[in-house]
Amino acid sequence: MLEVKNIRKEYKNVVAVDDVSFKVEPGKIFGLLGPNGAGKTTTIRMILDIIKPTAGEILIDGKQPGKEFQKYTGYLPEERGLYKKSKVLDIIKYFGCLKGMTPKDAENEGIQWLKRLEITDYKKRKVQELSKGNQQKIQFIIAVVHNPRILVLDEPFSGFDPINQEIVRDEILRLKEEGRTIILSTHQMDMAEKMCETIFLIANGKEVTGGPIKEVKRRFGKEIIKIEYEGNGDFIKGLPGVKTADLYGNFGEIETEDGIDPNSVLPAIFNGVALRSFSIEAPTLNRIFIDTIKQNENGTSSKQNNQGATR
Known about the structure:
Blueprint: E1 2-11, E2 14-24, E3 28-33, H1 40-47, E4 55-60, E5 73-76, H2 88-98, H3 103-116, H4 132-144, E6 150-154, H5 162-177, E7 181-185, H6 189-195, E8 198-203, E9 206-212, H7 213-220, E10 224-230, E11 242-248, E12 251-256, H8 266-272, E13 274-281, H9 285-297
Parallel strand pairs: 3-7, 3-8, 5-6, 6-7
Antiparallel strand pairs: 1-2, 1-4, 8-9, 10-12, 10-13, 11-12
C-alpha cells in the first residue's frame, strides 16, 4: 500500500502542496484530480522521490522507500521525454535497462508491449517519425516495461483517438487486475469516473474532496436531469426551479434549485422540445469537479465535502 501522509511542499514564498494525505491500495486505480496548477504534478513528483517534501512522509507498506524504489515504480509524465532521433525498440530497451532490466529482457518485454498496443511495425522507426498518439504509446510502454508495482499515469490518454484510448484503457485495467497500485491523473472526467474506484480532488495545493466515487456522489446528493432532444432548448435555462442548464448540441444536463423535485420540471421541458430520452441521475464526476472547484475558488467549499477523503 502507498501512503501519503501530511505532505507539504514550499518554494520560497509559495506553498505548492499543503497537508495532503491519502492511501492507494494495490489492485486499485486512484484518481488524482484537479485543475491546472492545483498541485497534482508536485504531489506526483514527491511520491516518485523526484523532489523531497518540506514536511510529511510517503510510505510503501508502512516503510520509507529504499534504494530499490525507482526500480519498482513506473511513471508516465504529461510531457513527453523521448529521444526523437532514437529508434523505438532501442529507446524502450534503454529505459528498461535504467530500471534494472537486462537488455535482452527489455527487448523481449518491449516487443510484447508493442504487440499489445498494435504498433509492432514501428519498432525500427525513429520516434520523430511517429504520430503524436503513437509517441504516447511508446511513452506508456517505457512506464510499464519493467513490470512496476506502483504506476503513476499523468494524462495517459493525451493524443489518442477513441480506438487507441480504448486499447490503452484496457491495458491499464489489465494491470489493475494483476494487482498493481495505480495513480491516474487526468482532466478527462468521464474516463476517471469509469476507471477509478477512489478519487482525490486537489485545488490550490489543498484537499477539496475525495473518497470512493459512490460516496462522493452520495455526499453531493444532487440529482440532475439528463435529456436528449430535438428543437431549441435555450428556454430551459429560464424555467422556474432550474438552477443551471448545460446544453450542448441536442443533449443537456439540468440541475434544479435546492428543494425542487427534478420531476416537477419535466412537464415544461416536454412542452418546449421533442424529447428523445430523459433520465434523472446522480451528478457526473465532471459536474462534481466543476461545481466543487468553483466553490473552492469562491471560498465557499463546505467542510462536509472534505469529510469523505481517503486518508
